[in-house]
Amino acid sequence: MSRVRFSLKLVPTSLLSFLAANLAQGATIHVPDDLATIQDAIDAASDGDTVVVRPGTYVENIDFSGKEILLRSDDGPAETVIDGGAPEDPNRGSVVTFDSGEQTGAILDSFTLTGGTGNLHSWFRGGGGVFCLDSSPTIRGNVVAGNFCEHVGGGILCFEGSSPNITGNVISDNISNMNAGGIHCGGWYTSPAPRIHGNRITGNAAPNGSGGGISCADCSPVISRNTISGNSAKFGGGISCYEASPDLTGNVISENSAVYNGGGIRCTLFSSPTISGNVIASNVCDGFFGGLGGGMDCADGSPSIVNNIFAGNTGRWGGAMRFDSCSSPEIVNTTVAMNVATQGGGIYAKGTELTITNSIFYGDQAAGGPEMMLLEGEGPPTPTRLHISYSDVGGGQTSIYVGWDCVLNWGDGMITANPLFADPPAGDFHLTWDSPCKDAGYSSAPRLPGVDFEGDPRIAGAAALSTGRNLDGRDREDSLRADVEPITGGSPGSLEPPGVNGVIDAAVDIGADEFHLHLYFVGEAVPGEMVEIGVVDRPGRDPVALGLGSGMQDQPQPTPYGDLYLELPLLLEWELGVVPDDGVLKVAAEVPASWSAGEEYPFQVLAGPMGDWASELTNLLVVDVE
What we know:
Blueprint: H1 13-22, E1 28-31, H2 38-44, E2 50-53, E3 56-59, E4 62-63, E5 70-73, E6 80-83, E7 92-93, E8 96-98, E9 107-109, E10 112-114, E11 118-121, E12 124-126, E13 130-133, E14 138-140, E15 143-145, E16 148-149, E17 156-159, E18 165-167, E19 170-172, E20 175-176, E21 183-186, E22 195-197, E23 200-202, E24 205-210, E25 214-217, E26 222-224, E27 227-229, E28 232-235, E29 239-242, E30 247-249, E31 252-254, E32 257-261, E33 265-268, E34 274-276, E35 279-281, E36 284-285, E37 296-299, E38 304-306, E39 309-311, E40 314-317, E41 321-324, E42 330-332, E43 335-337, E44 340-343, E45 347-350, E46 353-357, E47 360-362, E48 372-375, E49 385-389, E50 392-393, E51 400-402, E52 407-410, E53 421-423, E54 428-431, E55 467-469, E56 507-509, E57 518-522, E58 530-536, E59 544-548, E60 552-559, E61 562-566, E62 572-577, E63 584-590, E64 600-607, E65 616-617, E66 621-624
């Protein structure tokens, strides 16, 4: 039986005066100028109002109380902290609560949220930083760090029918003793669809459960363009999916760790995620009684794995991927390289019908099945069947261990050559000019993406085989703009021609036409640090000139050389040199000390001399200074 609670609260005279002054219009309330606490301001606000919080540390546990208001800091999360470490009610220990049906108009913007211990709901305690129950607010631009809860969602809990928009936050160093150190989404048979976009999710832990970074259960979230790194759990160090089918697109999932299953990603109980355009690298799953899937572990599901890189992952059974009792996973246009395992360096599969097309498996290591191990599934015995075509497998069929009753269908278009990556030890998996993987793919492959990591056409007169990319890669928002001061002087090697971002926006599609022109860089854009600028182009192209725009055009300007994205005048022009025989021009440069974190700089290259109609402009590369 539901209960209705009544309470009597004395309203301060100052609050009555404020309400009277703002009754007839949408108000902007300042804390502490108008009201002393954030909760007082929320209580005074009406739908459509804005609450602006001045810099400082506020020891509060706040509740939006169903209001569609904007709550924002005046000076950003570094200066404005909400510390939830001293709750009046120990069962209401979340720093921020949304549990009254709030929707997207309830906006939490630009705070640091810390010290939370979660709200008690039913039998569990969850949502150390933010607690969402049947609510779908907007959570953007915050730092959610240093929170703890006993059961689920150390940083953020989105439970039951909650589908919040979680965008542009840093979610770090949160702990849930059981599941979801960073974010949990899902509930009991409610199938919500939260959007988790453009966040940095790092250093979170679920030491006794699943989902160090993100946990999904009975939901279909869109998880896109995030950096999910350095998280840990028993199951699913980066992401755990339990009866969930998330859309994982354009993320960097790296350096996460798990004990039993899925260093990077774990999917179980009929989870069928779409995994597209991600870099899944340097994850580890090496527990003595576990170690299943360094990059990804999937059981009882049918994942779609398209246009990804799995590189440098480590597991006992399946360095890059492990499949067990899966219905029919598909792998298309994916590069699997330099992964390490005891068995199945690239893939370890049991009881699975696996289809691979237009992909590269090279340089993986294992005592048994360096590239793949195919084994019979258990109870009832189910042989693994691999159908592979139009792909490059280093070592050929001898690098694939085929167990009892299992089947390897070695199809058309297979090659076994070195793919000639640009610089694998540095994490650069672009293909060089004379790679045998060029034009080696199948243009009618299932689920073939129309574009590569950068949005460039994947097929331009010939079929694509796979992807190449730098491991630091991530996509950029099309709407980014740069407001920069002119930069003068400099010489090659000092980047007063500038250095370029270490979070890369680069990939080369392996099956383009005669060549694929692309600008990228390797490293982190930290002032004073060295980075590497790279241009993939036709050998012998001279000159190759880098330009820094004074901004970005709202719409690209057509030119005889291709689309120009940079606003003129250019703030810098720097001749990089001549494209060498391998088709990859690399130039070392130093990021200017005058650049500041958070600034953005747009670059393009003109390949070839001005006035030569064979010259071409590259893609736009936007540099975010770290």
